[in-house]
UniProtKB/TrEMBL annotation:
Organism encoding this protein: Priestia flexa
The protein, known as: Phage protein
Domain of life per record: Bacteria
Amino acid sequence: MSLLELLRSDGSIIINKKLAHAIGVDATIMYSELISKHFYFEARQELTDDGFFFNTVEHMQADTALSKYQQSKAIKKLVELDLIKHRNKGLPQRRYFKVMLNSELKVSQLLATGEKLKNSTFKSKKTKQTEVEKVDSNNTKVNNTDLINKEKGANREFALSFYSFKSKYSVDEESIEVIEHYLERYHFYQRKSHPNLKAHQWQTVIDELYYGECNKPDGYEEFTGYELKYIIDEHFKTKYENCDYNILHFISGQIRALRYYELGC
């Protein structure tokens, strides 16, 4: 059996590369899988009267490897684009989806956008490569990549505010909203602005914000941005010993998971 046959034989997700450039890989995977599930349930006559079908977080994670957090962000993106509808209903509540099958114009526009983004990314990389290669006095090409990387590394050692960090580096909107909520709570309770952090520390906050250590078998609890805001509020109401309430403390150990459980989540 060839490598291609081996991969196809165990289930594959087909995604459109142009769409991935336009809306992101996770949202594209989610959209492709939801379309597939729509036709699966339609063939089995298991769609609701208004075209919805249900699918759990666990089932979608098994089928796509997307975590709860990744699914949440992807769903939000697809709903905003009016490519799907999403709602929870029933007791116990189930997660229902409806694929908007009359979205050909919207999808065509996104594909065109994706094509432009793909081409601009390729051109940008070529331009940067050309700029990095300079000619020295002996007309010998000198690659300045290492020098540029060292300069970037040096710049990242300076402490900066989160406002400055998000202005220089790419941060998703939900993370900005959660972190700014934390900084507002810090200012309210501590009567001062949160200390500046080095860029790599802010990046650590973003990378680890949604996953907290806990005693579960897999070792971590996963949170949504919506849940984190309540956890942050609970965090500042909690008295710790020798704690300055720096956000780095908040993302350490089991802090978030313990506050999460106290809220009864």
